[in-house]
Write a structure and sequence with these properties.
Organism: Didymella rabiei
Domain Rhamnogalacturonase A/B/Epimerase-like pectate lyase: 248-463, 592-769
Number of strands: 58
Number of helices: 7
Helix content: under 10%
Pfam families: 4HBT, Pect-lyase_RHGA_epim
Structural class: mainly beta
CATH topology of the domain at 627-865: Pectate Lyase C-like
GO molecular function: polygalacturonase activity
Radius of gyration: 31 Å
Protein name: Hydrolase
CATH architecture of the domain at 627-865: 3 Solenoid
Length: 955
């Protein structure tokens, strides 16, 4: 492009003389190139026409100067059209001033770019115009060529004084003319680290910085958003001018470990061995594109999101001498006593997104693991690529999980290593995971239950191994469900150890459904290398092993199954439909509306109802995405999310329902209402919380009414009722054993109404707090909420979904149809049965088809009433306590008899139901159909819970 500009302007004698002058170097005009952020759109787009600026060429001095400023002068040659007229054939005076301002800014920007290179920092300096004093000396004729000049005259502190001219090009010596001139003062930052790194084209970086942590001890000084470059990371060291604009590339030479750790830990945050949890120190730690050398482990903190630029994934490259359990460590072990940094089952609210982790520099026999992730609810890893050595003697592992109560991962791509993943956890959902060229693709260390969907494993010795404990006849893997997956060029798909005589009797259960094998000789291997299921190049319909229940009672099974047909509305190309959380990487900042910029405060005190609703309505009207900067947006009436809304938070921005509108449980009212009855359209909502404050017994946190278009979804949106600062539901207000009306906090957590269809949920935790997250001792609390997740609609997806601690039930599917659920997880309230499900504060309401309980009963984990095609792909229904006493679920219980409540799963009426790998803890009767008990704990004792591999009823 610059060559064409030079050719066109060289036909003008005075311009050709300047272009050929060795004292000047032609360079592209960066403001003429569109940028993802929308920067320079005026000159790059609006004025890029045949009637405005037809050609534009910048000339910078050929020789740089020493000192703070490399360039003191700049020339810009332009060919202007008649679309810039003021009077006939005269340049508009306002546009002449615009040219002066742009030329002065171009000179300063040129120095910014040079300072980036000199300092090795993207944030060398920024600038803005303080004033522009213009003198008009004579008209500038157009159309035709003009010359703009800019020269720095002096620098005083942080101010630069620049003199500029616009010349008409008709004089013999055009630089002597002065038809318009200006004195330009620009405030320039001094090149030291500034509070914000420069924009890089991804909206999250370019828009963030306004988020607040309102209940932090220092809300004005605490930074929610952190760019690692602001903390000294050199991952974007080299500045490289392209024809379009300045780009910055990572050097991969400087050790950036300390800088990234500073970005994570800054602000007296909740670190390892210091606090178990905290809600007032959230952080988004942003990593721009580039390569970052890592020689020390990156230590994760509580309520942190580590996010790379999805437009061009940044690389964290392990140094050859990295000595660590993992490059990213979510819970390091103490060198002194071996204690983990956090209690793994309380390790909530964390995310990793958009990274490449490169371990190839580590020797094959030296330890390397990309991520250590002993995580629990409301956590996710998404869009991460891991690269390791492909040597046959490798001891590397991509992801290591040894504990926790998770969790969710999606969109992973792992190559090499001894293990793609070496993992064990109570329960997990993993979707769209690609592993290749590892010795073992996935090593399942232990679990209670696990759902894998969309595995793509190729060129591994064994795709999936679950044999732990086989030698001692004490299997450590409870149950595994793998669906909609493809395995290629692996000698063995699943290596497992279950037989009809292995112990525990409910462990080692396996379900395979819709699995395509390409050149895989053994589909399922058994003890001693036997072939349990032959492979080849085939598709496995449905196959399983373990314990199942039939109308005639329990039996062990191993072989093909006649599973329920998948409802057409739940599938796409034969697989269960799924959609990853949108990150809007193709949108610039102009496509977003800021909630705080639109007038909401997010300070947890001001009533933001009107301001937030106005921002929502504006986002719909202008077809933009609504960005909720981190904060607590207190509302005193229902917020309506109309069809078409796209809303995204910043490390779990919260909407908090408060006040008398939500106080009456006999007149429940939603805090957030998604569509109104009869409305249809789309919804995208991600990375937020909904909670309540004070006595809100009539609050429905989320009501979903929308007839939803395919492609919609609710991702990483959680409800957190109590247990956090600002809610009025902490230890001081809601101590255990109390029944305080101010701690009656929600009528229903989430209600998918009968008018709704197509509701898509992924990685959601609908939680009533059992302990105070901001208490140093994680002290337990008594907070009462009525109903968990009530689904009455049609066509619902529940991927990686948990519902806990509600008084009447956790899940209820009532007159619903076509539900995909996996993995789902519940906990019974810890206070039960004192009060029990009959006498707790929420009265039964026939309008909600609430269950009828006898005295002494505890709440159901899952109740299915007159609902069809309810399909469960892995579930855990847990009851750990009786009146806060955990001894009823002790791992050391004699003969494994752990009884905390009688019933937890009830199927009623004209329902059709299928479940694979359903685990329960602390329950005597595992399966109740229309009041009759069909399965007892003792027939299904697994690694700790009790597990039924297959239930099929009326379907």
């Amino acid at each position: 492009m610059i060559d064409a500009d030079i050719a066109r302007l060289s036909s003008i004698p005075w311009a050709a003389k300047l272009i050929n002058d060795k004292r000047w170097t032609p360079t592209p005009s960066s403001n003429r190139f569109p940028k993802p952020t929308g920067e320079d759109a005026f000159f790059a787009e609006t004025l890029d026409t045949s009637r405005t600026i037809r050609t534009m060429l910048t000339l910078k001095p050929a020789k740089e100067e020493d000192g703070d400023l490399a360039y003191k002068e700049l020339l810009v040659i332009l060919d202007l059209g008649d679309g810039l007229n003021g009077y006939p054939q005269v340049l508009h005076g306002g546009f002449a001033a615009t040219l002066l301002d742009e030329t002065c800014g171009g000179l300063i920007q040129l120095n910014v770019f040079e300072k980036v290179k000199r300092l090795g920092s993207q944030h060398a300096m920024n600038y803005l115009t303080a004033y522009l004093n213009t003198t008009y000396k004579k008209p500038v004729p157009v159309p035709g060529p003009v010359l703009c000049t800019a020269k720095i005259e002096r620098q005083v502190g942080r101010k630069l004084y620049v003199h500029a001219t616009v010349e008409d090009g008709t004089a013999q010596n055009p630089r002597a003319a002065d038809p318009a001139s200006t004195d330009f003062e620009s405030v320039v930052l001094d090149g030291k680290l500034q509070p914000r790194a420069a924009a890089d084209g991804y909206w999250l970086n370019d828009l963030s910085g306004k988020g607040i942590a309102p209940f932090n001890p220092n809300p004005a000084g605490y930074k929610v958003f952190r760019n690692v470059l602001d903390y000294g990371a050199k991952g974007k060291l080299l500045a490289v001018r392209t024809e379009a604009w300045l780009t910055l590339q990572g050097d991969g030479v400087t050790d950036d470990s300390d800088a990234i750790n500073r970005a994570i830990s800054d602000g007296n945050r909740c670190g390892p061995w210091v606090c178990d949890s905290s809600t007032d120190t959230p952080a988004v730690v942003y990593i721009p594109s580039g390569t970052y050398l890592i020689a020390k482990p990156i230590i994760f903190y509580y309520m942190t999101q580590l996010i790379g630029n999805p437009q061009s994934l940044p690389t964290l490259k392990a140094s050859a001498n990295l000595e660590a359990l993992a490059l990213i460590d979510a819970s390091p072990y103490s060198n002194q006593n071996g204690e983990p940094g956090w209690t793994s089952t309380n390790l909530f609210m964390r995310q990793i997104r958009n990274l490449i982790i490169d371990g190839t520099a580590r020797p094959p026999t030296a330890g390397f693991q990309a991520i250590h992730w002993p995580a629990s609810q409301a956590t996710t890893i998404q869009n991460v690529k891991i690269r390791m050595t492909q040597a046959s003697n490798s001891v590397h592992a991509g992801i290591f999980v040894e504990n926790g109560s998770g969790g969710h991962m999606a969109d992973l791509d792992i190559q090499g290593g001894l293990y793609g993943m070496n993992i064990g956890n109570q329960q997990f959902t993993m979707r769209n995971v690609k592993i290749s060229k590892a010795v073992t693709g996935i090593s399942q260390i232990w679990n209670w239950g696990w759902l894998y969907s969309g595995l793509t494993i190729s060129d591994c010795g064994t795709a999936f191994a679950m044999t732990n404990g086989a030698q001692s006849n004490k299997l450590e893997v409870g149950s595994v469900v793998i669906i909609d997956s493809e395995i290629t060029n692996c000698p063995t798909f699943v290596d497992q150890a279950w037989t009809t005589s292995t112990e525990p009797i409910g462990a080692g259960q396996l379900t395979l459904e819709n699995i395509k094998l390409n050149n895989v000789p053994v589909a399922v291997k058994g003890p001693g290398g036997t072939t349990v299921l032959a492979g080849g190049s085939i598709t496995i319909g449905t196959w399983g092993q373990g314990n199942r229940y039939t109308p005639s009672g329990p039996e062990k099974f191993q072989g093909p199954l006649t599973a329920a047909a998948r409802p057409a509305g739940l599938v796409e190309n034969g697989k269960y439909y799924s959609k990853s959380k949108p990150q809007y990487e193709s949108l610039g900042v102009g496509s977003f509306i800021s909630a705080r910029g639109a007038g909401a405060t997010g300070n947890g005190d001001t009533d933001d109802t009107v301001a937030v609703q106005n921002a929502i309505n504006r986002a719909i009207r202008e077809n933009k995405v609504l960005f909720f900067e981190h904060g607590v947006y207190r509302v005193t009436n229902t917020l309506d999310f109309p069809p078409g809304l796209r809303a995204v938070g910043e490390t779990f921005s919260a909407i908090m329902g408060s006040g008398s509108a939500f106080s009456d449980q006999n007149n429940p009212r939603p805090v957030v209402r998604i569509g109104k009855a009869g409305e249809s359209g789309s919804i995208e909502w991600s990375d937020m919380l909904v909670q309540t404050q004070g006595g809100t017994a009539g609050a429905k946190l989320i009501e979903y009414n929308l007839r939803t278009a395919r492609g919609s979804g609710i991702w990483d949106v959680h409800t957190r009722v109590g247990g956090a600062k600002g809610t009025g539901h902490q230890v001081a207000q809601c101590p255990t054993g109390s029944v305080n009306p101010q701690c009656f906090a929600a009528h229903t957590n989430v209600h998918v109404t009968s008018s709704a269809s197509g509701a898509y949920f992924e990685n959601n935790w609908f939680w009533t707090a059992d302990h105070d997250l901001d208490d140093w001792n994680s002290t337990r609390v008594s907070i009462f909420t009525g109903r968990g997740l009530l689904v009455e609609g049609r066509g619902t997806w529940l991927w990686a979904n948990g519902v806990e601690h509600h008084a009447l039930y956790q899940y209820q599917f009532s007159k619903a149809s076509d539900i995909f659920a996996g993995f789902i997880q519940t906990e019974t309230p810890y206070y039960m049965p004192k009060p029990d499900a009959l006498s707790q504060p929420y009265v039964r309401q026939a309008a909600y088809n609430d269950p009828v309980y006898a005295a002494g009963q505890s709440a159901y984990g899952l109740r299915v009433v007159d609902s069809s095609n309810v399909l469960i792909y892995g579930g855990g229904l847990y009851s750990f306590f009786t009146n806060y006493d955990v001894s009823c679920s002790s791992p050391d219980a004699p003969n494994g008899r752990r009884i905390c409540q009688n019933r937890i799963l009830s199927i009623e009426g004209a329902s059709s139901f299928q479940a694979f790998a359903l685990s329960e803890v602390g329950v005597e009767q595992m399966l109740t159909i229309n009041g009759r008990d069909y399965a007892t704990w003792s027939d299904n004792l697994s690694v700790y819970p009790n597990t039924i591999g297959y239930i099929k009823y009326n379907i």
